[in-house]
Specification:
By secondary structure, the chain is α/β, with parallel strands linked by helices. The chain folds into two domains: about 10-140 and about 315-360, 3-Layer(aba) Sandwich (Rossmann fold), CATH 3.40.50; about 160-300, no CATH class. It has ten helices and 15 strands. It has helices at about 20-30, 50-55, 70-75, 95-100, 120-135, 150-155, 180-185, 205-225, 320-340, 360, and strands spanning about 10-15, 35-40, 80, 105-110, 135-140, 160-175, 230-235, 235-240, 245, 250, 255-265, 270-280, 295-300, 305-310, 345. The strands form three sheets. Strands 6, 7, 8, 11, 12, 13 and 14 form a seven-stranded mixed sheet that branches. Strands 2-1-3-4-5-15 form a six-stranded parallel sheet, with helices on both faces. A two-stranded antiparallel sheet has the order 9-10. Strand 13 (about 295-300) and strand 14 form a beta hairpin. It is globular and about 50 Å long.
C-alpha cells in the first residue's frame, strides 16, 4: 500500500544521452502522461540547444538539450535515465553517476549495474556513499541485463520442485547497426580471429561486457540460492565464409562475423547458470532456423523451456527496433520503484509490470 510519504506521479525525469537506446527511452518518457521531461543531456555540440522533441521526433517539449553536466546537476528532477555510451571500461562513467547521485537525483542505468553485491568493494562503497549523501538510489534496468535472466529465467523456475541448472541463450542479428566505430571497434566484428583474447580483460570491450554480464550470472545464482565457486568465460569469435556487405561497412572473408559471449556460473564442478549471447552478422553460425530473441532452459523437476521474443507493432512509426522499445519499457516501468526506494544501491530485478497511470485515465 502506498504511504503518505511516497512520491507520486508525475515523475520529473532527465534523459542522459541520445544514442539509439537513449532516444528510445526519451520518446517513452515524452509519451507517458505520468512523466515530465525535466532535462536532456547530449554529448555532441550539434545537438546542444535543440528541443528534446526535435531530437526524439516528437512535438516540441520546451526542454532544450545541453552538453553541460553542470546544467543537468542544477535541474530539479526525481531521476536520471543514464544511457551513456558503453565505455572501454564498465566504470568509465562512475564519476558522472556519483555527481548525479550527490545532487539528489536517483539514477537508473541501462548499461548493466544490476547486481551490486558482485562489484568490487571499493566501487560499492563509492556509489553507496554518493547515494546516501544525496538521499537517493542507484540501480540498473533494461532488457539484458535487467530483465531476461533476472526476471524471466528466475520466474520460470517457479513451477519446479527441484532445479539442477538453468540457462539462457540470446541471439542478436547485428547487421543493421549503422555505426562503424560501434561495430568494428567496440563490438569487434571484422577482426582477425585469434588476434584478441575475449576471455581476458585486456581488450576494453571484453572487460566491459564481462563486468555487465557476470553480474547477471551472479544475480540469477543468488535468486536461486546458489553460492557459486566462480564464473568461467568461454567466449569465441567465428570467421565469415565470404565477404560481407553490412550497413556499417565491410567484413572480409575469414574475419569475425559472429561472436559468442558465454559465461558459466560453476558450483562444485557443475555448471549451474549458463548465459550465452550470440552476436551474428548473418545466419552462417546460428544453429536452427528459429531466431527467437531468447531461449530459456531449466533442468529440474519438471524441465522447463521458454522461447521469448519481442516484435515491433505494425503501425509503430520510425525505425526503432523491438529490442529498443523493450529496453525503454523496462526502464520507465522501473522508475516508480527506484524513486520510492530507500537511499542506496538497489539490486535487480526492479522492473515492474506495466500499469496504466492515474494521469492516463483522467
Amino acid at each position: 500500500m502506498i504511504g503518505m510519504d511516497v512520491k507520486r506521479a508525475p515523475y520529473r525525469v532527465i534523459q542522459w544521452a541520445t544514442g539509439a537506446m537513449g532516444k528510445s527511452c526519451l520518446r517513452a518518457v515524452i509519451d507517458r502522461p505520468d512523466m515530465e521531461l525535466a532535462g536532456l543531456y547530449v554529448y555532441s555540440q550539434s545537438k546542444a540547444g535543440k528541443d528534446a522533441g526535435e531530437i526524439a521526433r516528437r512535438e516540441a517539449t520546451g526542454v532544450l538539450a545541453t552538453n553541460s553536466i553542470d546544467d543537468i546537476l542544477n535541474i530539479d528532477a526525481d531521476l536520471v535515465i543514464h544511457a551513456a555510451r558503453i565505455g572501454q571500461t564498465h566504470t568509465e562513467h562512475d564519476d558522472d553517476i556519483i555527481a548525479l547521485l550527490k545532487s539528489g537525483k536517483n539514477v537508473l542505468s541501462i548499461n548493466g549495474n544490476t547486481f551490486s553485491p558482485n562489484w568490487p568493494r571499493e566501487r560499492q562503497e563509492r556509489l553507496q556513499a554518493a547515494c546516501l549523501e544525496g538521499g537517493v538510489s542507484f540501480a540498473g534496468a533494461g532488457l539484458n541485463p535487467g530483465f531476461a535472466a533476472e526476471n524471466l529465467l528466475v520466474t520460470a523456475t517457479s513451477v519446479c520442485s527441484h532445479v539442477e541448472s538453468v540457462s539462457i541463450s540470446e541471439t542478436v542479428l547485428t547487421d543493421q547497426i549503422a555505426s562503424p566505430e560501434y561495430v568494428f571497434d567496440l563490438l569487434g566484428f571484422g577482426k582477425e580471429v585469434g588476434t584478441i583474447d575475449l576471455n581476458a580483460d585486456d581488450w576494453g570491450p571484453a572487460q566491459t561486457l564481462n563486468d555487465m554480464f557476470e553480474d547477471v550470472v551472479a544475480s540469477v545464482a543468488h535468486s536461486l540460492g546458489w553460492t557459486l565457486d566462480g564464473i568461467e568465460r568461454r567466449h569465441r569469435m567465428l570467421p565469415s565464409g565470404r565477404d560481407l556487405e553490412i550497413r556499417a561497412g565491410k567484413i572480409a572473408k575469414g574475419t569475425a562475423n559472429h561472436i559468442d559471449w558465454r559465461w558459466y556460473g560453476v558450483k562444485d564442478g557443475a555448471e549451474k547458470v549458463a548465459l550465452k549471447i550470440a552476436w551474428a552478422m548473418n545466419d552462417e553460425h546460428v544453429q536452427g532456423a528459429d531466431h527467437d530473441l531468447w531461449q530459456i532452459a531449466v533442468k529440474g523437476v519438471p524441465d522447463v523451456s521458454v522461447a521469448f521474443g519481442v516484435q515491433r507493432p505494425e503501425d509503430y512509426p520510425g525505425r526503432t527496433s523491438a529490442e529498443q522499445l523493450a529496453v525503454a519499457g523496462s526502464v520507465v516501468n522501473a522508475i516508480q520503484t527506484l524513486v520510492n526506494a530507500p537511499a542506496g544501491l538497489l539490486t535487480s530485478p526492479i522492473t515492474t509490470p506495466f500499469a496504466a497511470s492515474e494521469a492516463a485515465q483522467e
